[in-house]
Amino acid sequence: MGRSPCCEKAHTNKGAWTKEEDDRLIAHIKAHGEGCWRSLPKVAGLLRCGKSCRLRWINYLRPDLKRGNFTDEEDELIIKLHSLLGNKWSLIAGRLPGRTDNEIKNYWNTHIRKKLLSRGIDPLTHRPINEPAVDVPANSFGAVSNQDRIINGFGCKNQNDPDEENCPELNLELQISLPYQNPPQPLDGNSGRKMLCFYCSMGLQNSKECSCSSGSSRGRSSRSSSSSDEFLG
DNA sequence: AATTCAAGCAACCGCCGACGG
DNA sequence: TCCGTCGGCGGTTGCTTGAAT
Fold first, then answer.
1. Per-residue pLDDT of chain A (233 residues; tens, 9 = 90+)
2. Residues (149-188, chain A) with CB within 7 Å of strand C atoms
3. CATH number at residue A98
4. In terms of domains, do A51 and A72 share one?
5. A41 and A112 belong to one structural domain
6. Strand C at less than 7 A from CB of A227
7. Do the Cβ atoms of A24 and A61 come closer than 8 Å?
8. Residues A116 and A131 both lie in one domain
9. Kind and range of the H or E element at A223?
10. Which nucleotide has the shortest C1'-to-CA distance from A86?
């Protein structure tokens, strides 16, 4: 007695998607929206598993996807988020508009891991590689010490009292907020570039510590709940 | 020019939690 | 409360492409 398969595998295509399949999927979603993935293939006339359709749409066909290389800013943001969240790719992707969890996961494994290794940082723990081994759980999420945060450039220690946290906002007690979208950003007077404080770069515009601005409004989706609205609240 | 190897990426697999009956 | 279904997620696989020999 195993779990029933997600679809009838004997009559589904696998492997790379053809242009025709893509077109069918796009046309169907444009006409009917993202409805029930399980029934979508049948309705759309696709010989594909519903999961496969969903993956193809989310990772490749969605119109709001940002294709192309990652910027240095995106690199650094991914590194910061990974040090805080671990391999929670969907959460990380939520902070990078136009990027998908799969894309970020692949990018991490192929580029950022090497980048960190070349800096002498263990991509798993975000610790210096030659630092004496400490008892670190396999999952680095939650295992990142204050020292690590300082090492990685977002120290939150109170300089006067190392035992006191200055950043209650970084209590990532698994309260998830929605991806922030285009918060108001002050301009750097010299370069004209938009400068974000750390809190904004992490999507924490509502943070008391935010030095950029206040009162920004953010988009909401149907999945939001009153508790998850208050990220780190 | 042919072959081998490695890197990059799209797609698949299986597990888990949420939800509804 | 239990059970089945579904969507979503993270890990992994395998194909494609380009570099090296």
1. 333 445 555 567 888 899 899 999 999 998 888 878 888 888 888 889 888 998 999 988 988 888 788 888 898 899 989 988 888 898 899 888 889 999 999 999 888 988 888 888 888 888 887 766 554 443 444 334 333 443 343 434 443 443 333 443 444 443 434 444 444 333 333 333 344 444 444 444 444 434 443 333 332 333 333 333 333 32
2. none
3. 1.10.10.60
4. no
5. no
6. no
7. no
8. yes
9. none
10. C10
For residues A183 and A229, state if they share a domain: yes
Q: Does the CB of A38 sit below 7 A from strand C? A: yes
Check if residue A16 sits with its Cβ under 7 angstroms from strand C: yes
Measured to protein CB atoms, the chain C nucleotides within 7 Å are 5-12, 15-16
Give the span between the Cα atoms of A114 and A149, in whole angstroms.
Answer: 20
Q: Which bases of strand B sit closer than 7 A to a protein CB?
A: 7-16
Angle at the Cα of A106 from the Cα atoms of A105 and A108, rounded to 5 degrees: 65
CA A186 to chain centre: 24
Give the domain extent around A205.
171-233
Same domain assignment for residues A230 and A203: yes
